[in-house]
Design goal:
alpha/beta; Rossmann fold; DNA-binding; 3 domains; six-stranded mixed β-sheet; 434 Repressor (Amino-terminal Domain); homodimer; 324 residues
Chain lengths: 324, 324
DNA sequence: CTGAAAGCGCTTACAG
DNA sequence: CTGAAAGCGCTTACAG
C-alpha cells in the first residue's frame, strides 16, 4: 500500500492538516514540526498523490496535445518543444495521435475532458471541437482553423509561400509547379498555395498546383506531376517530406538537381537538416510556435478568454541549400 | 461549473448511486431508469470525472513514456506506436522527453509517480530507476538495461550488427569502419558493435570503431573518421541519422556512393524511408517492439512480476538499397 | 502555531 | 431493482 498523508501524520505525531500545510508551505508552522514531517516523509518514501490534489483544486496541470502523428518529424519536433515547455511551466502532457481521423479526434477530446485537462493544443481538422469549446475548455489550434473563437498559431505561411515562389523565379525557373495538401481543408497552410499562385500571376505566369488528396500517397501525385509536366524545372512542395519525394523521383528519372530542376520544401525540421541538408526549404519557427501556443493557452487557463490574439503568424526563414 | 454525478441524479430523479451504476453497467437497473439517466446525462452534457474514479479505484490507466527526444524519428515513431497501442487498450500516455539527462529522468519519474501512473516505459540511461522500482512500480525498458529485474525489449541488435557487417564484406569492402555511441552506457545496442567486431575478426580483419561521445556532435566524429581513414570504403553506422551524416560528408569530399564507399545504417524508420530511401539500413520492428513492451508492462500491472521475459530481442530486417 | 470537519466527484459494500 | 453511508487522498476555511 502506498503511504498516504495520514501515515506521514501518524509517524510525525501531528495531524494530516499539518502535513498538508508543510507540503504546501502554507500558514505558520514551527521549524520543529516541519522537520518532523519531512523526516517522516523521507522515512516512508512518501510522494503526494496528485490525483487527490487535483480533484480538490479542480486544476490538474494536465495539457492534452492532439497531433496527427508523432512519426512525422514536424509533429515529433512540435511535441518535443511543447512537452519541454509545458514541463518547465509545471504542466504535464497527454499525447494523442489522431492520424487526422475525425472519429479519433473526438474520442481523444472526450478522453481529455474526462481527465480534466486544463487545456488542449490541437493540430486537428476537427471542427467539432467547437461543441466542446462551448464548455469553456481552453484550447488553441496550431495551423488549423477550428472556429472563430479558437486562437490559431502558426508560421507566416503566406510569407513562406511567397519567398519560396520568388526564389524559384529569381533562379530563373520557367516552369514552376506547386504541390500542396487538399484545399478543402481550411488551414492557414493554404496560404502557402495562395502566395505561390499570387506570385506566379504577378510575374505573368500560370500557376499550376497539384493537390495530394487526403490519405492518398503523395508519391503517386509526384509521379503524375512529372508525367504531365515534362518541362517542369522548379517545384515548391508544401512540406519537406514531399520535397524529398520529388528529389527521389527526379533522380529516378535522371533529372539533375539543381541543374535541370530546382526544389524547395517547407518545414525545415532538425531531422530534415540532419538527413537531407542539401534541401532548400522554408523553416518554421517550431519552438516559437510551441511557446506562443502555450502562452495563449495559459491565458485561457487563467480565465482570460477575451483579448486573445486569434491569429498569430510567426516569422519563417529561408534556408537556401543545394537543391536550388 | 462542470456537472457532477449528483446533478445527473437530481435531473433523473434517482440517487447518485444509481447513476454510477448505469455509468458502470453494474448490477440490475430497470430499462426505464437507465433511459432517464442517459437522458439527464445528455441534457447537461455530463462526462464522468476520471480523476475521482481513479482515486477510488487506485488505477489510473495512465502510462508514462520517457524517451530522450521525440524529435528523433526513431523515438517519434516509437512514441506514435506506443501511444496508439496504449489507446487501443484503454491506456493514456504521459509523454516525457528526458534529453538523456539523468536529472530530468528523475524529475519525470517522480512526476509520474505522483500522478499515479499504472506503469512506465523507459528509454533511459537512468539506473536510479531501480530505487523506484522497489516500490513495485511496473516498468519496462526499451533497449536499455536498468537493472536485473527490469525487463528489456529491443531489436536483435547482434543479428542486426552481424547482417550489416557481413553485407559490407560480401560487397567486397576492404576497409570497413563502424561508428557507434559511447560504450560506457550499458545498452543492448552495444551488441551492434560487438557483432561488427566479431564478424570482422572472423574474416581476419581489424575492427575499427569510432565512438560518438555523449552529447557531442556526431558530425565532428564523421569528419575525423574520414580524415584518419582515407582508405575507408565501407561504413556501418549505428543509426540512420549518423549514416545520413556520413553520406553528406562523403559527398562533400567527392567520394562516390556506393562506388567508392558503401554505407549502411540502423533503425529504418518510416521517415528515413521517405526522405532517404536510397540508404541501406537495418530495420527495427518498431511496432512490434512497442507492442511487446506494452504487453510485458501490462502483465506487471496485472500483478504478475514473476516469469517476466527479462530480455526480448525482436527480429530485424535488412533493407538493401542504393548506398551499398 | 495546530487540529477537527467538510468536501472535491466518484464507487462499492451493505441493506432493504 | 434502488438508496444512504463510508471512503479514495488530498486541501481549506474555521476555530482555538
Amino acid at each position: 500500500m502506498k503511504p498516504s498523508i495520514h501515515d506521514v501524520a501518524k509517524i510525525a505525531g501531528v495531524s494530516s492538516t499539518t502535513v498538508s500545510r508543510v507540503l504546501n508551505n502554507r500558514g505558520y508552522i514551527s521549524e520543529k514540526t516541519k522537520d518532523k514531517v519531512y523526516k517522516a516523509m523521507e522515512e516512508i518514501n512518501y510522494f503526494p498523490n496528485d490525483l487527490a490534489r487535483s480533484l480538490f483544486r479542480k486544476r490538474t496541470n494536465l495539457i492534452g496535445l492532439i497531433i496527427p502523428n508523432s512519426s512525422n518529424p514536424f509533429f515529433g519536433e512540435l511535441a518535443f518543444y511543447i512537452e519541454s515547455i509545458c514541463t518547465s511551466m509545471g504542466y504535464k502532457l497527454l499525447l494523442c495521435n489522431s492520424l487526422n481521423r475525425i472519429d479519433k479526434e473526438e474520442k481523444y477530446l472526450e478522453m481529455l475532458i474526462r481527465n480534466q485537462v486544463d487545456g488542449v493544443i490541437a493540430v486537428t481538422y476537427n471542427r467539432g471541437i467547437l461543441n466542446y469549446h462551448q464548455q469553456n475548455l481552453p484550447i488553441v489550434a496550431i495551423d488549423h482553423y477550428l472556429s472563430e473563437k479558437v486562437p490559431v498559431v502558426g508560421s507566416d505561411n503566406f510569407a513562406g509561400g511567397k519567398k519560396a515562389a520568388e526564389l524559384l523565379i529569381k533562379k530563373d525557373c520557367q516552369h514552376i509547379v506547386h504541390i500542396n495538401g487538399p484545399i478543402e481543408l481550411e488551414t492557414p497552410a493554404n496560404l502557402r498555395r495562395k502566395a505561390y499562385e499570387d506570385v506566379m500571376r504577378e510575374h505573368g505566369r500560370q500557376p499550376i498546383t497539384y493537390e495530394v488528396p487526403f490519405h492518398e500517397n503523395y508519391r503517386n501525385i509526384i509521379s503524375k506531376l512529372f508525367d504531365e509536366q515534362p518541362a517542369v524545372d522548379g517545384i515548391f512542395a508544401s512540406d519537406d517530406i514531399i520535397a524529398a519525394g520529388v528529389i527521389t523521383e527526379a533522380k529516378k528519372r535522371g533529372k539533375d538537381i539543381p541543374g535541370q530542376l530546382k526544389v524547395i520544401g517547407y518545414d525545415g525540421t532538425e531531422t530534415i537538416q540532419a538527413i537531407l541538408p542539401e534541401l532548400t526549404t522554408i523553416q518554421q519557427p517550431i519552438e516559437l510556435i510551441s511557446k506562443t501556443a502555450i502562452e495563449i493557452l495559459e491565458k485561457q487557463i487563467e480565465g482570460e478568454f477575451d483579448n486573445l490574439p486569434l491569429e498569430t503568424y510567426l516569422p519563417i526563414q529561408l534556408f537556401e541549400s543545394g537543391t536550388t
